[in-house]
Batch of 2 targets.
Target 1
Amino acid sequence: MSERRIRVLVAKPGLDGHDRGAKVVVRALRDAGMEVIYTGLRQTPEMIAEAALQEDVNVVGISILSGAHMALIPRILELLKANGQEHVKIFVGGIIPDEDALKLKAMGVTGIYGPGAPTGTIIDEIRLSLESDK
Amino acid sequence: MGKSPAESILSGDRKILARLLTQVENGSPEGLATLDELFPHTGKAHLIGLTGAPGTGKSSLVNQMALYYRATTNPKRVAIVAVDPSSPFTGGAVLGDRVRMRDLAGDPGVFIRSMASRGSLGGLAQTTAAVVQVFDAAGFDVILIETVGAGQTEVDIARLARTTLVVEAPGLGDEIQAIKAGILEIADILVVNKADLPGAENTERALKGMLGLAHPVEKVFRHHGQVMATPASEPANSSLWVPPILRTIATDGTGVGELIEAIEQHVQHLRRSGDWGRRERARLEAEFEALLTETLVSKFRLSVSDARYDEVVDRLVQRTLSPGEAVKVLLGG
């Protein structure tokens, strides 16, 4: 009777309005059997952290194409921690230069994906990251 | 530390609350045990259901209603349960109702939870009632429950909610849709949303016509230039509730104040007429019956070997047993 589903919050923080990539990922995760909560555009880090808490998600996926990732993502990580949500895995998609990707991973981001990343890889890595918790 | 999950929730811990909702949704034993502990604290919240076809603006209306409840002089704590469909093939779901509720972000008096329907067909998930109970125990004054919005058979919500709103929008159907059985029958209040669009009058007129068929209301009309009136077949007594039809524009909040007022009147009507208690009893009985059925079926399934079960299904496929006979065979009758 007991049924566990992976719950993922997908959010676009900041001001860029290009959400096609986020929607492609949302759809792919749905087809992989996950429950995906999509919050839409122009989310603040506070909104994302609060939604992650209310929805009790396992994963937060963040899509950023604006170049503001080094300002927004550390703030999101900080707020999740402040809310006691450090178990939540963070995945980032967008245009992230390699040196920034290294820094973000060091801060605790689990996966970072650029243009052309196969959705199958994202799905596999989400599943893998949650297995190690159990 | 040392607080039980139930105690933490009663004292307002949002993180434990969110986790319990997940446990209840997943049917985990520890979650159900906490739910048992919380049950005596339920029964205080006003449960308001919203149903209606996709795209009528249910989520936007929920957003405005919650804003309104929060802005009153005595702000109410509002929980929102928004159900969206699960894929019947993969079990996955996209839950997108939060997109319309961004105005509520940052308000600690509001808690939004998205739920996937997980194969249930009545517009709610099987565990929605339990999730609502958790919010009720946690002290939320108003719980807004938004159904999947897939069609004409979403009547589960009327069993769960104390006031059911059916949301319509212009251009979605004619009077024949309005007199079909099902969703309109369950309405305590009818809302014509997107009232700024052309055709809103027609939608309202169709709904009024439908209500006129079902409820004794006084009609005044002109016949050969003479004004004629047919009196209501029954005097307007207080035990009868005629669903009001209200116009709203959920994108800017027009009409939401009147809607909340109508909900208040409905609550007073329920209390005055004794329907409050009757509905409460019917609701708990339905919930209990569903649980009983589910438990009996899963218990029974354990007592029948898979081989025996498959054998009966095989005989169904070969047409040597009808489904009715198959049940008798399995039950040993």
Target 2
Amino acid sequence: MDGRPLGSSFRDPGGFVYTRDGVLYRQVNRVFQDRFEAFLGSGLYDELARQRLLVSHRPVSLELAASPEAVAVLEPERVPFVSYPYEWSVGQLRDAALLTLELQERALVRGFTLRDASAYNVQFLGGRPVLIDSLSFEPREEGAPWAAYGQFCQHFLVPLALMCHVDIRLGTLQRTYLDGVPLELGSRLLGAAGWLRPGLLFHVRAQAKLQRRYADRDIGRAARARSVGAPALLQLVRGLRGAVEGLAWNPVGTEWADYAHETNYTPSAAGAKRNLVIEMLQGLGARTVWDLGANTGDYSRAARTLVPGVVAFDLDPAAVERNYRRVRAEGETGILPLLMDLTNPSPAQGWAHRERLSLEERGPADVVLALALIHHLAIGHNLPLNRIADFLARLGRRLVIEFVAKSDSQVGRLLRNRPDIFPDYTVDGFESAFRRRFAIDRREPIPGSERTLYLMTALPGGAGR
Amino acid sequence: MYIDPAAGSLVLQAIAAGVLSALAMFSRVREGVKSFFRSLVPRRGRWTDGR
């Protein structure tokens, strides 16, 4: 993909993002030149980039442009792992929402406005959300309402309200509705909460009703007659901030939230496992680790002592939320907790299957960690061992994987109320399934447990195919 | 503007702006009325400051 826009970068006529020789660039088109220069000249870019609210960029030669409409080419700071709102915990989405409102407030104060309020314009960098689209700002026309107000509510407020007031699992609606959860759907699903909370009553219910009423009407004259001043817009943004800040969810009571406390590891066995994981990672020179089934990230942090970037995936919203809160509380960098159901990982989707990348397309990682995971996939989800090996070989170049024998009490729990239809789920069956895709470099029993830790290398034709 | 702002969302902002400016106007009028009446009633300090 040399000089061609990324699959997600095509809606804004003002510019687009592309790669050339593996380097990411953003082109600014002539049609947006005045507004972009005004943005740079206002000091707003410097302020936001300095405070790490907006990704920084450096201007590069126009010769690197991807098309003749270019008036400037920027090389933005690269985000190590691109994630999507449907992979974020509720706290991550909330922080991304508050960042967007903070940016809009600062823009308004300087006579600018955000042209869009897409959650996909936010990424996590150094443990914190940051806006990645330098072309999102433009000078505000006096009296103009905020064009991205509805988009903000669909991308942030509605999914957050549904997760906090109805069911945390409704965050998955974002995967279906890539341009945000429709206000009318959110309003209906919110039920009583949409009436009782003034913020939701105004920004969701009332807005949904007006959107329906004016869907087919030309409001040109009416809108011109009634202008919206900057103080009123600031009040609107502060009202939205209050509504977002009023949304909270307590990460308890899900299946996995207390899993770490329920494993059969004694503290010394857990310590031995941690040391073994670190030992196996040593000397690999890995830059990226994907910790699959990371729970609240204990082993992700062990890996982080050696590796600059760890993505900690888990399917449980409470575990991911707790992990993210740890990241924020400790100011940790290099650990990105994300929601991911490995039995149904994020697909390639959006326009032409190109807008949002699948998990696999964002790899391969240097190392995949799969600790205390295999039994959940093989026995909990009836996934044949060779298919698990196939998929893991596509996700990473190296694999650190823990085999949990049937004699382990955690596997016993999975088999407690069902027939054992897994005759191949043995050490031999596991090794022969994985040898089809990996070379087994090391095999170490974990002292004080029924488990074995393996270090493997994907065979050619595996990772990165 | 390159995204569809949704007409209803614009109308809601216009209504909110109208309500806010009406509130601001009301509070300005109220302050004006209050200060008018305050000016009619002599302040207590004038009688007790010894002048």
